[in-house]
Amino acid sequence: MADNKRKKSGEKLGKGDEVTWKSHGSTTEGEVEREITRRTEAAGRTVDASPEEPQYEVRSAKSGRTAVHKPSALRKK
After folding, report:
1. b vs e for 12-40, b when ≥16 Cβ sit within 10 Å of the residue's Cβ?
2. How far apart, in whole angstroms, are the C-alpha atoms of residue 56 and residue 32?
3. How far apart are CA 48 and CA 31, in angstroms?
């Protein structure tokens, strides 16, 4: 996981953290809703996560929609 920005910075993301991510060529801002650590349904799709490889459900500040991202795609504000 050498390319995992969260691991490099040592920051752990949690519910309520403000983050940014790239979406369709621009930067989007939002908030972490939850950490996903098992295979589940979220944001309209099946998320294949585990405790070793978690993913995060985030809510866009602009649209209010949720999305799921790997930690390497998110930057803490």
Report:
1. ebeeebebbbeeeeeebebebbbbbeeee
2. 7
3. 21
* pLDDT 10s digits, 15-72: 999 999 998 899 999 999 999 999 999 999 999 999 999 999 999 999 999 999 999 9
Amino acid identity for residue 38 in this structure:
R
The amino acid occupying position 47 is: V
Count CB neighbours of 44 within 10 A: 9
C-alpha span between 16 and 13 (Å, rounded): 9
The pLDDT confidence band at residue 5, using thresholds 50, 70 and 90, is very low
